[in-house]
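I need you to check the entry underneath: sequence plus fold tokens. Let me know what the token row says about the fold.

>
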Amino acid sequence: MTHLSTLSTQKSAIPTVLASFIIMLCLGGIYAWSIIVPELKQMYHWSAVQSQLIFGVLIAVFPATMILAGRLQQRLNARFQAILSALFFGSGYLLSSYSNGNFVMILLGIGVLAGIGTGFGYLTALTVPVKWFPEKKGLMTGIASAGFGLAAVILTYLIENALLDGLSLMEIFRRIGLGYGLLILTVSFFIRTPTTSTLITLSPAGSMLKTRHFLLLFTGIFFGTFAGLLVLGNLSPIGAEQGVEKHILMVGVSVFAIANFAGRLSWGWISDTLSTRLCIIVALLFQGTSIFLMGYLPLTSSIYLLLSALIGFGFGSNFVLFAKESAQHFGVANLGTIYPYVFMGYAIAGIFGPLTGGYMFDLTASYHYASFVAAGMSVAGAVLFLLSRPAKIA
């Protein structure tokens, strides 16, 4: 009887997992921002700083909103938060589509409103599947976050074809707002949360933030994503510096994104078999070694693509393993409360990682030293976990 009940419960949870994946597949399109930047510069005479500020503001607003969403999770159910995600995300791109290239309107639309929508949707899509399958935390966080990693590949393809068809950037924003907004809204109605009686009692955020393990997770995800984002933000220039062909440079970005998607799934699955802590150490060492080789080896086209794939595969681990370790240590029910604070380490890395890469290039006229710094940061994160004492699980 218990077996039949479990099968029935898992069957009812499958639509939630699929809906969560689709939500992430829409929200993660912001990683295709680099394909939009040249159009903003050429058509509306934006500076490079203006174009990067939109991306930076969204990366900052998105985790900050997750903190708010975590605090509201007991008042607003997951489905309603997903609906809020659709409304904010869609309205942000729609507002931008009527801007005629006005910087302030696009900053408000995509940077702030779509950033808020991303925060509400990301937290919902990441945490609810884990609550349905607490014994498969790694796989569930892997599936959900994999959608976010794959999104850039799909949206890049759609934007490139739309531009080739002669559509204006404002029309593309309008289609993203309407298409993605309606898709998120539709699948939101398939989001269901299991009864709280099966979950661990909620703990206040303040008590969790004072623990040594929170600081370890926050610092670890900062080191890991700082390294990956430094490379991702400068991936094409790193190859171009050594004479890699322009076509290969574009392929390298897609290879990185696909490997990132595969890494999120793979590390999630592996962590359900091995210790999550061990997986974090191995993944950060793997990422650091791959980044070091990109800075050390002479880059032919094949080596460039191979290392882009390896770095992307390692980078994807950050968005699965730290979420799983948060759920493992603080309890599944507390994941929505504590993980947004852990994820702020990524938000800080999103600002300083790519900027450090650019600054070091300006300073040394080479990306070699920037690659070594990124590799060192990733290895430092692994050493941090290696030397720290395992904490008791909640």
